[in-house]
Amino acid sequence: MKLGIVGGRLQGIESTYLARKAGFETFVIDRRPEVPAFSLADEFKVIDVVKQRDEALRSLSNCNAILPANEDIETLTTLDKISRELKIPLLFDLDSYNISCSKFLSNQIMKGLNIPMPDPWPNCSFPVIIKPSSQSGSTGVMKVHDEEKLREGMRFISEMDEDIIVQEFVDGPNISIEVIGNGKRAVPLILTEVILDNTYDCKMVRCPTSDFDSNIGDNIKEYGRKVAESLSLRGIMDLEAIVHNGIAKVLEFDARIPSQTPATVLHATGINLVKLLFDALVNDELDSATPLHNKAAIYEHIIVDGEAMMSCGEGQFSNVDNLRLQIGLFDSDEMITNYTPRRKKWHAIVICTGNSPQEAWTKRQKCINQIIEKNKITHYLDPVPEVSK
Ligand SMILES: Nc1ncnc2c1ncn2[C@@H]1O[C@H](COP(=O)(O)OP(=O)(O)O)[C@@H](O)[C@H]1O
Ligand SMILES: [Mg+2]
Question: Which atom of ligand 1 is nearest to the CA of 168?
């Protein structure tokens, strides 16, 4: 089975990695010649799907499915048409995506479904979060503590020509769930916990999540199912919530293949979300997935630059070259990295697992220590979001 993956950055890394793990032949397309997923794929081609439509059509014609791994609306719309022309299944739902890329529209849907969300300003007190309605990857997200900074932040976002969301800052673990739908039914999958850097970008994912009442987890899954079924989702989405005082408040959902969380789910449970997505849309098989094993996994990003090492958000990974999968490097389970012994600056996605969260964490610590020791690192920086007052 051959999967055509369009987009070679963060979602492309994730899709290619998972597709290969599931035994697919992978073919990645991107309009830029140096994207990180190229070196992970069996085959790649530099094509601008919008500007070189015929070339894209020809190149994708022998694929068994097309998986869009980008957030460019023109590219997504073109792929939707190409897949119809070629009669090749598209593992993506354009209508749902169009709703989910507006937080304004998404919030309206969730309100209609009675899903708890952060209280909107001014029905809440400081600190508040300000964010643009239709960006992703934490772009433009700000936490502010007073009226003056609120005005400044609002001015900044309106200069981005964006609708502005202002809402209660919810303090607690950030939980994510993927949901796969076949247009009629939707199945929520495995909860993961996302840990942020100082710019609210995701630098680490953990599965299972930290401990909280299992009812809360069930609620988050139910919110995911409800949203997906109300969209008649035919594809994959993720939904993100923050848990505070026993309540999960939903921040957003995004109807596209996410990055980071699916690989963590794979290592913790053996469940491969790309395979499930393909089975749901191509083979018409959509069942609730049973974990093949119950392990714990930690997934994180690091950059090494000379004697310094930094934990970083995924944003830093969009332009990395020569990524390869390296099993067991520095005592990790796996690293997706451009490390070579001679390279001064390198990036890595580090994945460590164990039979319990504690065991996975111990393995992770050992791995970080190995990296520090073997690369003679003298500075290790691990930025976290500002602690709330
Ligand atoms: N109301 C909120 N309370 C606390 N943190 C928030 C809130 N809204 C957003 N954040 C933080 O900012 C990150 C990005 O915001 P999100 O709404 O998910 O937008 P994006 O589409 O950029 O991912 C979230 O993962 C979360 O950590
Ligand atoms: Mg988000």
Answer: 1
C-alpha 255 to ligand 2 mean position (Å): 12
pLDDT at 200: 82
DSSP H or E run through 268: helix 261-269
Q: What is d(CA 65, CA 45) in angstroms, rounded to the nearest whole number?
A: 17
The per-residue pLDDT for 389 is: 35
The verdict on pTM exceeding 0.90 is yes
For the domain with range 2-92, which CATH number is right: 3.40.50.300, 3.40.50.720, 1.10.8.60, 3.40.50.1370? 3.40.50.720
First-to-last CA distance in the chain? Answer: 53
Dist. CA 242 → ligand 1 center (Å): 9
Inform me whether the pLDDT recorded for 243 exceeds 90.
yes
Q: Verify whether ligand 1 is closer than 6 Å to residue 170 (CB atom).
A: yes
SS3 content of the chain, % helix, strand, coil (to 5): 35, 30, 40
